[in-house]
UniProtKB/TrEMBL annotation:
It is found in: Cell membrane. GO terms for cellular component: plasma membrane. This is NCS2 family permease. Keywords: Cell membrane, Membrane, Transmembrane, Transmembrane helix, Transport. The keyword Signal does not apply. It comes from the Bacteria. The chain crosses the membrane at residues 12-34, 40-62, 69-88, 94-114, 126-146, 166-182, 189-207, 248-270, 290-312, 324-341, 380-401, 421-437. It comes from Larkinella knui.
């Protein structure tokens, strides 16, 4: 009788794991597409992405016993590429070293339970604003990658001509993927990527636009061009020494800050959706989950990718009935076959992954509803953090000005009690970062 009771639940957990994988597998394509713009090889990042997602999802399932997938985080990969490498001119190997040290710092914060003190330091409106600001940043990157938003000397930026077949293909992909997501089709984002790629095939052939489909020497009917051995070239390529320079500490801090609050919001959100609370009312196995997240960031630097984090898309599997670590184990295992598909996946063009970036940005906007926009001394610092992230093309700048403005405004209106002592320390690091030349 015991077996009869557990078998249906096991089947449910497996199906939940499949659903979670379908909801998160877009990262296999999108993460290499973003990090390759930082000068890292597409195939190497794909291998690192798969290994990290597999290994750390298993750790989440076996150690933390929670039904959540761990993979390189959206927003964190954008920060790596567009702020650290392109914006600050940091070599990719040094940026990977910064990821590793951020993971080590995150581990220390988790082991000694310092993270709870940090959570109390950072005002909630700023946390919500940074999350939404990163969403806007990712959306801007998606529009830029699709060449939908372009430079305009008269207005700084503008929309490209709709006569361009590339733009029309992107719009088709964006609308198609949006409908699939709204209708809650399993694997909606990856289906949108595949279908947009297929539509882009004639664009690449007839118009000869390299941004449509990168054929190279590969064809979809040549299996030697589809399969390849995993590319382990990025493993251990991080620069541990130069990444400890003083000028890099704002980068390390930004990685830790973003990863920490992204993780906490994910665990709280998933716990709320599935009622996964412990006896004290905290998300179930929170300490182990955060420790797993910290390990994921540390391993990311070693493997050759941006920091790993728990995915809110895990809620898809939870909605299917996933409640145990088996869901994460199944989802993580499904990443493995993609180790051998880098040639095929590298064919996918930027206009096919761009709709995914735009929609992920939309998903990340939800926290702005938690900001009290009628309370201006809360709203204005949050607003600056929110808009400066995309407008300055830098997550770091949004965080810095959000913190500093919060402190100044609160002091000016006589609410110094809302500026914790720890925030003064953070402000000091923010000021030093502003005058460090970056």
């Amino acid at each position: 009788m015991q077996t009869g009771r557990t078998t249906p639940q096991t089947r449910t957990e497996i199906l939940a794991g499949v659903s979670t994988f379908l909801a998160t597998m877009y990262i296999i394509v999108v993460n290499p597409a973003i990090l390759s713009q930082a000068g890292l090889p597409f195939s190497g990042v794909l291998t690192a992405t798969v290994l990290l997602s597999f290994g750390c999802s298993l750790l989440m399932g076996l150690y933390a016993r929670n039904p959540m997938v761990v993979a390189p985080g959206m927003g964190l990969n954008a920060f790596f590429t567009f702020t650290a490498v392109k914006g600050m001119g940091i070599r990719p190997e040094v940026a990977l070293g910064a990821v590793f040290w951020a993971g080590v710092l995150f581990l220390i914060l988790s082991v000694f339970n310092i993270r709870s003190a940090i959570v109390k330091i950072i005002p909630k409106p700023l946390r919500y604003a940074v999350s939404a600001g990163i969403g806007l940043f990712i959306t801007l990157i998606g529009f830029e990658n699709a060449r939908f938003i372009v430079a305009n000397p008269a207005t700084l930026v503008g929309i490209a001509s709709l006569k361009d077949p590339i733009i029309l293909t992107f719009i088709f992909g964006l609308l198609l993927t949006s409908v699939l997501v709204i209708r809650q089709i399993p694997g909606a984002i990856i289906i949108g990527i595949v279908l947009t790629t297929l539509v882009a095939l004639p664009v690449g052939r007839w118009w000869g636009d390299a941004s449509a489909v990168n054929f190279g020497q590969k064809t979809l009917v040549n299996f030697q061009g589809i399969l390849a051995a995993p590319d382990f070239s990025l493993i251990g390529k991080l620069d541990l020494v130069n990444s400890l320079q003083w000028a890099l500490w704002p980068v390390i801090f930004a990685f830790v800050f973003t990863d920490l609050f992204d993780s906490l919001s994910t665990f709280v959100g998933v716990a709320e959706a599935a009622d996964l609370y412990d006896a004290d009312g905290n998300p179930r196995n929170l300490n182990r989950s955060l420790l797993t997240d910290a390990v994921a960031t540390t391993m990311a630097g070693l493997l050759g990718t941006s920091p790993g984090t728990a995915y809110i898309e895990s809620a898809v599997g939870i909605a299917q009935g996933g409640r145990t670590g088996l869901t994460a184990i199944v989802a993580g295992t499904l990443f493995l076959p993609f180790l051998f598909l880098s040639p095929l996946l590298s064919v996918i063009p930027a206009i096919a992954t761009a709709p995914a970036l735009v929609l992920v940005g939309a998903f990340m906007m939800k926290p702005v509803t938690k900001i009290n926009w009628g309370q201006l001394d809360d709203a204005l610092p949050a607003f600056l953090a929110l808009v400066l992230i995309p407008f300055s093309y830098s997550i770091t700048q949004g965080i810095i000005w959000g913190f500093l403005t919060w402190t100044v405004v609160k002091l000016a209106v006589g609410k110094s009690n809302e500026v914790p002592v720890g925030l003064w320390i953070v402000d000091l690091f923010c000021i030093l970062a502003l005058f460090s030349g970056h």
